[in-house]
Design goal:
Shape: elongated
Number of strands: 4
Number of helices: 5
Largest sheet: 2 strands, antiparallel
Radius of gyration: 15 Å
Amino acid sequence: MQTSTGKEFKLKEYLTTRDRNALTNVFLGSATIDPISQSVSEIPASSMLDAQYKLIELSVTEYDGSAEKVLDRLLDNQDPTDYDEILAAINAAFPHLSKKAALPTSGAAISDSAGQS
């Protein structure tokens, strides 16, 4: 797959139950649970970004020719285009998981130039 800036990236073909649980743990680890109703009463907004980071770590196997420090390289990029487009691709590939991370739907200019998902 390729972003509109020309950077190629690869996603895992599937995510495991362990991956799903790791993402869920990001939310539940910071959630406040009402002891009476035993329901989640508050989730800090910062956990949304943490969930996006975890989802990238779990699903992106390579970015711009390297598997090293994918998330760090995306976050250190001055232009957020690649980050946004890769999140959109993750959202499309794993909609049942990405909804938990509130991924943006903008920036979906992704091409599957190598026939990889």
